[in-house]
Specification:
Blueprint: H1 3-17, E1 24-28, E2 31-36, E3 45-50, E4 61-63, H2 74-91, H3 97-106, H4 108-111, H5 121-131, H6 150-159, H7 172-195
Antiparallel strand pairs: 1-2, 2-3, 3-4
Helix pairs in contact: 2-3
Length: about 200
Amino acid sequence: MSANEDQEMELEALRSIYEGDESFRELSPVSFQYRIGENGDPKAFLIEISWTETYPQTPPIISMNAFFNNTISSAVKQSILAKLQEAVEVNLGTAMTYTLFEYAKDSKEQLMENHHPVHSAASISNIISVETPNTAPSSKKKDKKEQLSKAQKRKLADKTDHKGELPRGWNWVDVVKEYEALFKFSSQWSRRLSEQ
């Protein structure tokens, strides 16, 4: 079998295996991401595997450069990539994307045992600025207008026409109530007249 035929078969298998799995993402027919761990888990990480033209006879490109991994130290990333490369060498010549994702899932605790969350420079500077007292004289902040959310704007746009005017019959509930009250009054009036 040619490399392209192997890739097509593996692509079909990955799509069927991971159908409906929110952790799996197909970036392109030759590039895939898998989130190891749940969202919000401090030890969760994202692996990206990209196939070369001659994959599976040659190793895939494995990356952990996704923004999702920004709190993982480079030493831990290198350790994870080294362990995944060992698994690649064992499986070279066979379809291995599923195997690598499953290996990472099964070994998550071991792979992340030395993980201590690293904060980005922006978040560290925010922490520092929050902790340092502000010695500059405080100036009065301008009162901002209350801004509408997208949903509120959409709701308002749905109620009005293109000129911003309320459409005819927008208060039909009030009109119906008026008619009901008028009908009750007229029926009571007609009964009184018939009784006399």
